[in-house]
Amino acid sequence: MGQTIAQKIIAAHRLDGExxxxxxxALRIDQTLTQDATxxxxxxxxxxxxxxxxxxxxxVAYIDHNTLQSGFENADxxxxxxxxxxxxxxxFSRPGNGxxxxxxxxxxxxxxxxxxxxxxxxxxxxxIGMLAFGAGGLDVAVxxxxxxYHIIMPKMTRINLHGKLSPWVSAKxxxxxxxxxxxxxxxxxxxxxxxxxxxxxxxxxxxxxxTNMGAELGATTSVFPSDEITKAFLAAQGREDVWxxxxxxxDAVYDEIIDIDLSKLEPAAACPHSPDNVKSVGEIGKIxxxxxxxxxxxxxxxxxxxxxAHILKGKTISESVSMTVTPxxxxxxxxxxxxxxxxxxxxxxxxxxxxxxxxxxxxxxxxKSAGVSLRTFNRNFTGRSGTKDAEVYLVSPEVAAYSAxxxxxxxxxxxxxxxxxxxxxxxxxxxxxxTKPATVEEAxxxxxxxxxxxxxxxxxxPVPETLECECVLKVGDNITTDHIMPAGxxxxxxxxxxxxxxxxxxxxxxxxxxxxxxxxxxxxxxxxSNYGQGSSREHAALVPLYLGIKAVIAKSFARIxxxxxxNAGILPLTFENPDDYxxxxxGDVLSIAGIDAGLAEGKLTLRSGKNEIALCVNLSERxxxxxxxxxxxxxxKGAK
Length: 640
Fold this sequence. Notes:
Layout: H1 5-13, E1 14-16, E2 24-27, E3 31-34, H2 36-49, E4 58-62, H3 72-88, E5 91-93, H4 100-107, E6 114-117, E7 131-134, H5 137-144, E8 149-152, E9 155-162, H6 171-182, E10 190-195, H7 204-213, E11 221-223, H8 228-236, E12 256-261, E13 268-270, E14 278-280, H9 281-284, E15 291-294, H10 302-312, E16 322-325, H11 330-339, H12 341-348, E17 351-352, E18 372-375, E19 391-394, H13 397-406, E20 434-435, H14 440-443, E21 467-474, H15 481-484, H16 498-501, H17 513-520, E22 523-527, H18 539-546, E23 549-554, H19 559-568, E24 571-575, E25 589-592, H20 595-601, E26 603-608, E27 611-616, H21 621-629, H22 632-639
Parallel strand pairs: 3-4, 3-6, 4-5, 6-7, 9-10, 9-12, 10-11, 15-16, 15-18, 16-17, 18-19, 21-22, 22-23, 23-24
Antiparallel strand pairs: 1-2, 2-8, 5-20, 13-14, 21-25, 24-27, 25-26, 26-27
Helix pairs in contact: 2-3, 2-5, 6-7, 10-12, 10-13, 18-19, 21-22
């Protein structure tokens, strides 16, 4: 029996475990990346392991999230990350060099390699044929130290793309259609692989748009073949030497096959407040808009920007609309300036922002009260923009630019014939904003620099044999990591200060939660389905750990967050019967006894008053041992 693309890469990197669906598989990791919102903790964790230098083929530390320096905190984090990268053997992408996923695709990504990053959109590099995973910072730290990255062997989903996109329909519309079909939970426990003749019509940046938003499916990752189009992109980046061909075998077997006719797709939008709430622009109608933001790791490539500039050229943005444009990298920014496209966007009234994540993570450009914002980003969760009552729609660059001119949500097909934008035969290559690490000899004399806002991360304690505490919070379905640990300009500067950050935990759901949880000393959280979807931020596990959370019981979990809970030493449990969720309320005293035997058996019993509720332990043997030890860092330190 043949293999899929993902199975081939897994087989080539497997260190332990069987490639059987549901089994734990340990993988060798070739490359890692971090960004500054998660990087400080990742390098604190790496330091705590006592390993003198990274052992991967390549590791890169990016500064692209916390760049709004309204105080010393972000700048201090940047200096710590810079000095840690220099000392421990990482490349350092300086502020202004670009968004981690865009830069990594351009300058470091390589087909057939494995990559994990402390950012949920690391699967972006699947567009170049990498097997790239979003992970918690501690998993990244372990991989940098030469340790394996563990996944539960996923099912394989094949999405066949047929035909060709119509004019003014884009790659963003493809992934929105996939989200409409599969939902934000439909990719859990799966790797999504793209094939079909339609793949040949998509450039590498277009493929990367699709794999980037594959994170919103809850998928383990997404991947495209590596073909002659991949080779041409790498050659244009001066990196043709890393290219290898990669495709699925003809007789590869998939657990699920989805067919999409590209010619039938229309410009679409994900409506508030979920990436899978997808409708065509025509269905939604000409709603008045207040803001348009183009950019993010989803849609900030050179060709994305050229399309926006073409639509805006000679026009003026509607007087009722504020529009921002964020090039994804310094390379993109420079090339836009050289070809005149940047001037066209500025002349139309667009506000050009620095090459960072910016508005996508609530770092500035929050919409007005109850404002309608069109964004080319990947998430539109409630409050993520920084404005709680904003209505955020996710759209393509073409829809965004044309709507900015019109002042309402508009279909770019009204523009008539589309202009074809070909990929450059040669990109502008200037890596002067990427700092090389010190040599092994030089590193011995270097020290990391920690500002006063940088605090040690909490370490979990071994799970007790009996757990008895209150339900300190009960929440519903699709709770995101933005609910658990919000982002935004006011909070992100404290990502390296867990005690201070704890004041904002679950503030979107219940502002009284942090004080209540801390006063109780220990507690349990009850959640609905798909608990913890969204970002890979381990803060959404470490902050509850700091507040005394011992277990989270939910109908189901998002993959990365469940892993992060285990890494932190918090027990993630699921209801055997999801209807039992309704039997529990905040303030109930909950008891779980016989935990050691229950972990071994995979089943535990929760007692609450007269109720006895069956719980499932969906953990690998390795994860069970980690929980017993108090989490990954405690287990790693104990093994030294």
